[in-house]
From TrEMBL:
CDD domains: S1_eIF1AD_like (cd05792). Residues 138-150 have a biased composition (Acidic residues). Residues 105-150 are annotated as: Disordered. Pfam families: eIF-1a (PF01176). Belongs to the EIF1AD family. PROSITE patterns: S1_IF1_TYPE. It comes from the Eukaryota. InterPro entries: EIF1AD, NA-bd_OB-fold, RNA-binding_domain_S1_IF1, TIF_eIF-1A. Keywords: Initiation factor, Protein biosynthesis, RNA-binding. The keyword rRNA-binding does not apply. This is Probable RNA-binding protein EIF1AD.
Length: 150
C-alpha cells in the first residue's frame, strides 16, 4: 500500500464519517494542551485532567490541537496515561451528538467561544493591509501629479 493510500485510510478512520454512538467505555473529552511524544493533556466533563496517547496508526497523519474534542477509550496499563484516542470530532459529529442528547452539557458553553475564535484565526489580514497601503500610495501619487501640473 502506498503512503498516500495509507494516509487516506487513516484519515477516514480518525475523522468522523460514520456517526456511531460511543460505546460504554468511551468518553468525550476536550484537549487542553500537547505534552509531546504523541501525548495530550485532556479534561473530562467532570473536570478531571489526565494524559491520553495518540495511536501509532494516527501519528504523522493526524494532528490534534488545543480546544479540539476527541473520543477516548481507557487503557489499563498506564498510571499517567489513562486513555487512547479513538476518534477526532468535527462540527458535524458534535451537532449529531447534541441532537441525540449525548453531548456533555459542561462542554456546551465553551464550544461557542471556540467557534467564534476559530473563525478569526483564518482571516488573512496581510492582504487587506496591502490593499490599504496601495490605495494610500496611489492617492498620494495622484495628488502629487495634480499639484505638479498646476
Amino acid at each position: 500500500m502506498s503512503k498516500v493510500t495509507k494516509r487516506k485510510h487513516v484519515m477516514n478512520e480518525a475523522t468522523w464519517d460514520d456517526y456511531e454512538m460511543p460505546k460504554e467505555n468511551q468518553s468525550i473529552v476536550k484537549v487542553l494542551r500537547s505534552r509531546g511524544n504523541n501525548l495530550h493533556e485532556i479534561t473530562t466533563p467532570s473536570g478531571e485532567e489526565y494524559l491520553v496517547s495518540m495511536p501509532t496508526k494516527f501519528r504523522k497523519n493526524i494532528w490534534v490541537k488545543r480546544g479540539d474534542y476527541i473520543l477516548v477509550e481507557p487503557i489499563e496499563e498506564g498510571d499517567k496515561v489513562k486513555a487512547e484516542i479513538v476518534k477526532i470530532m468535527n462540527r458535524d459529529s458534535i451537532k449529531y451528538y447534541k441532537e441525540n442528547n449525548i453531548w456533555p452539557k459542561e462542554f456546551d458553553d465553551s464550544k461557542k467561544d471556540t467557534d467564534e475564535n476559530n473563525d478569526d484565526l483564518f482571516v488573512n489580514t496581510n492582504r487587506a493591509h496591502m490593499k490599504q497601503y496601495h490605495s494610500e500610495t496611489d492617492s498620494s501619487d495622484e495628488s502629487d501629479s495634480d499639484s505638479e501640473s498646476d
